[in-house]
């Protein structure tokens, strides 16, 4: 089997910086103080497990902090209220929030218009954007969600890993319904580049394998990008989760989500190349 790597894959700059910062804290503190990770620093089980093995404690709310320590904020950010609660409990914050997410939070916080966040409901980044202001924020994940939005003028902020085609459809439908969205497109440029690479790769391979965690929105979007191109695509977390049918293809295109370590996708590549 021939395996063709995408030109751009794996860690984006934001993830690299977040992990470098978190790694530095773990190395320097080394058991001297309690280290908490507020949610998964990135959506990848291997990455999370590696920090847990070094003694870090994963938490989902400030109430889980049993003694003051260092709280590392995930790349997807946290709400203003969560940040205040963490500080009020006597903790030091190490902020690993992606710069693009911080920009989105600032846009929500400073907007003079009502805000629509276009993103996947329940995603940690969307929650952090929604929680960046005390004003009401409407979250739109699909065209049907516009049925709950009154006509008028809104500031639109987009989740960094949201689907471009779906975003365009939402804006178009909003216009039809009298919902004028002044859009600030904060979709991550690295995500856009990776999707374009998948589109190009799909033209010359039999199928696409995307390596990453199922909980990663940008990883799932790569799978969907290949599917929109009409190319069979598979989300694979490790060599043990490669579907049997993948081995029937002659040429496989391989890419990886922005939170996928190089070691993870190279192991999958090596396994496929042995066929």
Give the topology, please:
Blueprint: E1 2-5, H1 13-29, E2 35-38, H2 45-53, E3 57-59, E4 70-73, H3 80-88, E5 92-95, H4 99-110, E6 115-118, H5 124-130, E7 137-140, E8 152-158, H6 164-176, E9 179-184, H7 189-202, E10 207-211, H8 217-228, E11 233-236, E12 251-256, H9 262-273
Parallel strand pairs: 1-12, 2-3, 2-4, 4-5, 6-7, 6-8, 8-9, 10-11, 10-12
Helix pairs in contact: 4-5, 7-8
Describe the structure.
The model has no long low-confidence stretch (mean pLDDT 95). This protein folds into 3 domains: 2-11 and 190-273, 4-hydroxy-3-methylbut-2-enyl diphosphate reductase, catalytic domain (Cobalt-precorrin-4 Transmethylase, domain 1, 3-Layer(aba) Sandwich), CATH 3.40.1010; 13-97, Rossmann fold; 100-187, Cobalt-precorrin-4 Transmethylase, domain 1 (3-Layer(aba) Sandwich). It has helices spanning 13-29, 45-53, 80-88, 99-110, 124-130, 164-176, 189-202, 217-228, 262-273; strands at 2-5, 35-38, 57-59, 70-73, 92-95, 115-118, 137-140, 152-158, 179-184, 207-211, 233-236, 251-256. It is built from 9 helices and 12 strands. It is an alpha/beta fold.
The largest sheet, given as strand count, sense and whether it forms a barrel, is:
4 strands, parallel
Q: What structural class results from the helix and strand content?
A: alpha/beta
Number of strands: 12
**Strand share of the residues?**
15-25%
Our Rg estimate from Cα atoms comes to: 20 Å
Mean pLDDT: 95
What does the overall shape look like?
flat
CATH architecture assignment of the largest domain = 3-Layer(aba) Sandwich
